[in-house]
Amino acid sequence: MNPNESNAPAKKSLLDVSFDELTRIMTDWEEPVFRARQIREALYVQRRTRIADITTLSKSLRDRLNAHYTLRQLSLEAYIESEKDGTGKYLWRLADGYKIESVVIYEGRRTTFCISSQVGCPLDCKFCATGKMGLLRNLTPGEIIEQVLQMEHRIGRRPTNIVYMGMGEPMLNYDSVMQAAETLTDPDGYGLSPRRITISTSGVIPGIYRFADEERPFSLAISLNSVDDDVRRQIMPISKKYPINDLLDAARYYTEKSGRLITFEYVLLDRFNSTREDARKLVKLTHRLRSKINVIPCNATDEAYRPPSAEKTAVFREHINERSRRITMRKRKGWEIQAACGQLYAENQRRKKSKKS
Ligand code: SAH
Ligand code: SF4
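A: This is the predicted complex of the input protein with iron/sulfur cluster.
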């Protein structure tokens, strides 16, 4: 099915309904308010996947809920798994036919779910496969939450961490992203610790101030990728609107207001940001701001944007290792399964096109 081909109005998901809204609906339906608590428990503690299975509710209430809501909007379109480290990548089809990705990454005792916030992304970072799609639409809170529930169901394990590092820019779908994060951290529901959810932004400054002012308890990461305005503008067009100094001011505002560290993500790209001089600037940055930095080699999306050679990476690593313990150089997990955001989607589209021709 092509996106939007079906005219049937898609039913809203119960996962889209916040607990407060659910309480209001039960009141409107002249049900006792504890029904809202029973539904929350069924969805997020017992993890029911069908409304019909919420047997704590009367049959008539289940029927009424079923008439208005659904519980499953994502169906699995493709799955691939890395033989090397078990990283699993899911491509989901949404009710309107659009597709999104999520990834599960195993690292020691951690099980990290990497989830999407939008179908595509409007920000067009040059090294990013999702950026090439443009923005197709925002995800609803339910579509965000369901990625987590479905992956957990499939692997039979709860996530220890959730990162908004799949497709999309979370700060441009702020309300849905925060509602989903709140739902997943509700102590009477899914119960994940708020600090274990990381919102990653490419540097949408108004979103960072709002996040700080609303005192959101989730962790914050900024995809910095360069400390040089000229270079950053070339690889991340959003930097034309929001220059690095203003971005670092916003980051400082957040660290001071929240009393927490901020994480910078730094994708190593050959010819753009991986010289010894770049490493020196990164070390300097950690002295200016309460921060830690994750350096990750780029997953090549095309010829122009690829990781530096092993030699150049080693020079970069040495400079950093000798001078800062707040900077970690990581290996990209699931390298061979194209686990960088948007890459499975792109591969799936390519295959479809080649089948048609
Ligand atoms: N839009 C948000 C979150 C989604 S992108 C953001 O940009 O932060 C999540 C992360 O994937 C970002 O840190 C981004 O820099 C990184 N990324 C994108 N394309 C990549 C690639 N080809 N290789 C490695 N990391 C990539
Ligand atoms: Fe969007 Fe993030 Fe990809 Fe940039 S890196 S295009 S902001 S998803």
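The mean pLDDT is 92. The chain has two domains: 3-70, 75-356.
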